[in-house]
Amino acid sequence: MTGTPIIPDVDSPQVADVATASDPRPVADQPTVPDPAAVQHVPELGPDPRAAYREALLELAAGDPRVICLDSDTGGLENTFGEQFPDRYINVGIAEANLMTVAAGLARRGFIPYVHTMATFATMRAGEFLKLDIVGNRLPVRVIATHGGVSAAHFGTSHFALEDLAVTRALFDLAIVVPGDARQIGSATRQLHDLPGPAYLRLGRSATPIPPGPTPDLVFGKARVLRAGADVTIVAAGPLPLLFALEAADEMAVEGIGAQVVDLHTLHPLDRDGLLTACRGRAGVVTVEEHRPQGGLGDAVAEVVSAELAVPLRRLAVRGRPGARVHDQRTVLQAHGVSTEAVLAAARELLARRPDDRTHEPNDRPIQQPAPHSAAAL
Q1: CATH architecture, range 224-352
Q2: Virtual CA dihedral for 151, 157, 160, 161, nearest 10 degrees?
Q3: pTM to 2 decimals?
Q4: Which of the residues 6, 39, 48, 175 could staple to 199 if both were Cys, CB 3.0 to 4.6 A apart?
């Protein structure tokens, strides 16, 4: 390459625009020849989850005058919803407890409030008000919790949400949805809108890779099988956990191992029958989540599977103390036990424990519970 870099005389780093002998045009104007190897390994990014949600919310508001948007300085709603429906947009500021209480009052008056804050603030800072004012009164409030898991890893531990699903699962009959594909956010939002009670929608902060293929359907309350396989089952919730599960399944397929991948996007109500069907007769079950081991997806699956099927379970979740150093979302997950490699290791360990004799009766019989004592026998 010959030519003189055209660089402004400034102190800050700049991009050099270089003309070559073979093509006198500046590099920026030259045709780009992609590297096939690089293109092959770069996954397609999905839509920005918050932008996808805002688009769905605007559609709902246009068709239902009961929709009220309650903001807490999250950014992005004031110049979208606020501009189109200024009389139905309220920004309460960084006051999450007040946010929940205002939403409860509006719901009592017949509105359908959509409240917006980060997942850790919705369930920790405002958890008592979510519990008492909204869930305790069975009010149709939609809690839109962004920055779920470690998707705001660059902000530090104050913005991690690794306990929110444990909190929300413990609240009575609160609908909980964790889309694993940003293309499903619109569908999830519309289905939650029709529920009579409260709902919690957990979203990430930024765009993440999406599974290949057309936009999959999301049916509220129904587990979705993304890969069929008879050897081991991988159950995931959330974008990156689902991506890790699919990557591991694809790698095992090359080895002749059939890994069934299940997107368990709805944590309440849980698709008990679908989950049992997906896990029955397999060497074991691996769960993958962007959450602490306690109270999240792994516990939800274990509560169902361990009570009905005699299959071993391995739970991959965020362990240890993340946040000592600032990293991106995927790096934090990989450093704390949630990765494609971790899924592969857990699945292979379960397969190694499976008896060699495949002619034995499938290990899928329900565990027999002792008969309850009658009153006369006590």
Answers
A1: 3-Layer(aba) Sandwich (3.40)
A2: 170
A3: 0.82
A4: 175
